[in-house]
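Retro notes
What went well: the complex prediction finally ran end to end.
Inputs used:
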Amino acid sequence: MSLRFAALGLLAQHPGSGYDLLRRFELSMANVWPATQSQLYGELNKLADGGLIEVTDIGPRGRKEYRVTEAGRAELVRWITAPEADPPMRRPDLLRVFLLGELPAETARTYAVDFAEHAASELARLQHLRDSFEWGADDADFYGRAALEFGLRDAAMEERWAQWLVSAIDERISISPSA
Amino acid sequence: MSLRFAALGLLAQHPGSGYDLLRRFELSMANVWPATQSQLYGELNKLADGGLIEVTDIGPRGRKEYRVTEAGRAELVRWITAPEADPPMRRPDLLRVFLLGELPAETARTYAVDFAEHAASELARLQHLRDSFEWGADDADFYGRAALEFGLRDAAMEERWAQWLVSAIDERISISPSA
DNA sequence: GAGTGCATGTAAGAGGTTACATGATTTA
DNA sequence: TAAATCATGTAACCTCTTACATGCACTC
C-alpha cells in the first residue's frame, strides 16, 4: 500500500516519467521502502486508472510524462496526516538474536560482532551519502535530510547495541565457562 | 521466509503444539516478525512435509505435538549463521517524513510531535514488558532480553530524533515565516 | 448444557520479487 | 553499427493478511 504513496509523493514533488521516478526513488525513499521497477510501473498505471495522476505527454520511446491531479494531491495529504496503524517492524536479524541460544556461545558472539560491523558499515555509507549530496534549501531536501538523520542515528544505535551484546556474551561465557 | 525459522526456532527451544507456539510467539518474536495464526499453522505443515520437524503425538482435539528433527536443527543453525542478505527495512512512517514538504509546516510539525509521542509510548510499553517479565537464567531468556534491549534503545532513539525534528522545523519556520 | 478456551484448517486477494520480453534512441 | 541507456510491460511465484469454518474439551 505504501509504494502507491511513494510514487504519488514523488510526482507531487516533481512531474516526470516512470523512469525518472525510478532514479529519484533509488536515491531517497528506497532506503525506507524498497521496490522494484515492475512494481513502480504497475503502481503508476493503477494511480492513473484511479485518476490520482495523469499522463500529460507521450515522448520518444513511448515515454509517459506523469503529473499529479488535484484528487491525487488530496489523497496524498490524507495519507500523510492519517494516523493509520502502520505495519510493525520485520527484522530477520533480530529474529536471529532470539535464537542465538541454539548456537555455541562463541558462534553467537561472532554473530554479534558481525552485527556491529554491519551497522558500522551502514553508518559509513549513510555518512558518505550525507557528505556527497548537494543539499538544497527546499522542502524535499530538508525532509530528505531529516530521514537520513534518522538512518544515521539508527545505525549508530545498532552498532552500540551490538557492542553491548558482545560484552554481555563475554561476561556470560566467563561466568559459566564451556571448556 | 523468516517465519519458517521463527517456528523452527521456537520448536528447537521447546517442543509443543501449534497453539503452544502461537502463544510463545506473541510474547517474543512477534515483536520483530509479526505473523498470523493461519500463517504459523501453514508453516508447521510445510516444515513437517520437509522433514525439519515431526509430530510426536496426537492429543485431545487433534492436538499435534511437534518436535525438531536433526535435519531441522541443522537447517536452523545454517540460517542463523548464514550471512544471507536480509530484506531492507520498510517503514511507512519514515516514507511520510520524505513527503512532509507537501504539507504546511505546522501540519508537518504536528506529525513530528505525534511521532515522538508514539515512540515514547512504545518505550513505556517495552519498559513495562521488561519489568513485568520473570527473567530466567537460560539462553532463551538471555537473548530475548537482548532483543528487548534493542527495542528499548530503538524507541528512545526514535523519540529523541523526532524531538530534534520538531526543533528543526520550528527553526525553519522562524527563519522563513509563513504569515 | 452453555460458555470459554483449545486446536487446526481453508480460501480469496493484495502486495512484492524475480525473471523475462520488447523495442526505440542516443552515443561512441 | 554496436553498445549503452532509455522506457515500459507481462507472467509466475511466494508471502502475508483477512475472514471464515469447524469442532472438541473443560469448567461452571
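What we learned: Chain A has two domains: 2-81, 92-175.
What to try next: split runs per interface for comparison.
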